[in-house]
Design goal:
The protein has a 6-stranded mixed β-sheet with strand order 2-1-3-5-6-4. The chain has a 6-stranded parallel β-sheet with strand order 9-8-7-10-11-12, sandwiched between helices. It is an alpha/beta fold and 291 residues long. It has 10 helices and 12 strands. The mean pLDDT is 96. Bound molecules: NADP nicotinamide-adenine-dinucleotide phosphate (NAP). The site of NADP nicotinamide-adenine-dinucleotide phosphate has 29 residues, from helix 4, helix 5, strand 8 and helix 9.
Length: 291
């Protein structure tokens, strides 16, 4: 167990940050573990973020999270980036090793823990479809590949972004078959019929007026298959609703949010994260937001 200083400060850097549930989750964990710490929100415009990170050796936090839009740019300011974060191309958690700032990607671990632990889904040997080719999709594709998935089709409005993921992952995971296509292409429809797991890693479904990320008629009748949306608010997106209606298994992104936070806390404190307490804190914070 790591020895702690009396008071520690943790936080999250991003912009905008009005939506973040991380303080509620981490404060609840610190309280449960008896750690004297506070988790602050630093909503920084790009110029302020750059200024701060240029003097990263002077930052007096014990560890921090990074979110949109700085998950990629933060890497150049760190002393070390873990290989998985480097392949994913994004860092969401930064912790101290001696005086060095080390960047890692707990979104990937959080995604896998949610899928395997909460969803009861084992990716080994399976076929997957990932909708979207942003940072979250990259973490999901890396996680699925690491767990031995057989095939992944990645679809994005910008197919070059999907191709870039496929090319980056091929260098690390030689046995996985990657296909990259345009969102809405017929290949997506075909792959969804054959897939074992379909993941929405786009922001489509966050807003009530959003279009369908997958046409309802493309949701297979045979199954059950596993549908996971990385969105957690709303808890049931139209993507999950359509899958539920056809009898498929579904999971939203709350578990991913919880476990990425739990892993971050473990990196920072060396203690086992109290995930039950953290989940309750997240659910309560979501309830407050809904009011
Ligand atoms: P991002 O960087 O904006 O990437 C989203 C990607 O999806 C973009 O490339 C976007 O293309 C693409 N896209 C948009 N509409 C599409 C469609 N209809 N079909 C296929 N691709 C489409 O966002 P992100 O950071 O990866 O996050 C994606 C989602 O995951 C967000 O909703 C976020 O809240 C969620 N997330 C959840 C967790 C969690 O812990 N649960 C963690 C991270 C992210 P354009 O560039 O053209 O828009």
């Amino acid at each position: 167990m790591k020895k702690h200083k009396s008071f520690q400060l943790f936080g999250i850097f991003g912009h905008p940050l009005s939506h973040t549930l991380s303080p509620a989750m981490h404060e609840a964990a610190f309280h449960k573990l008896g750690i004297d710490a506070h988790y602050i929100v630093l909503d920084l415009v790009p110029a302020a973020f750059k200024k701060l990170m240029k003097r990263s050796s002077e930052i007096s936090l014990s560890g921090f999270n990074i979110t949109v839009p700085y998950k990629e740019t933060v890497m150049k300011y760190l002393d070390c980036v873990r290989p998985e974060a480097s392949t994913i191309g994004a860092v969401n958690t930064v912790f101290k090793e001696g005086k060095r700032w080390v960047g890692t990607n707990t979104d990937m671990e959080g995604f896998l823990m949610a899928l395997i632990k909460d969803g009861g889904f084992s990716p080994s040997g399976k076929k997957a479809v990932v909708l979207g080719a942003g940072g979250a999709a990259r973490a999901a594709v890396y996680g699925l590949s690491r767990e031995g998935v057989r095939e992944i089709l990645i679809a994005d409005c910008f197919p070059q972004k999907a191709r870039k993921i496929a090319n980056d992952m091929r260098k690390v995971f030689k046995r996985v078959r990657y296909q990259a296509v345009s969102a809405g292409a017929l290949e997506v429809k075909e792959a969804v019929q054959k897939a074992d797991v379909i993941i929405n890693a786009t922001p489509i479904g966050l807003k009530p007026q959003d279009p369908r990320v997958l046409p309802e008629s493309w949701v297979p009748r045979q199954g059950p298959k596993f549908f996971m949306d990385l969105i957690y608010n709303p808890a049931v997106t139209p993507f999950l609703k359509a899958a539920k209606r056809r009898g498929h298994k579904t999971l939203n992104g709350l578990g991913m949010l919880l476990y990425q936070g739990a892993r971050a806390l473990e990196h920072w404190t060396g203690r086992k994260a109290p995930s039950g307490v953290m989940r309750q804190a997240l659910l309560q914070a979501l309830k407050r937001k809904g009011k």
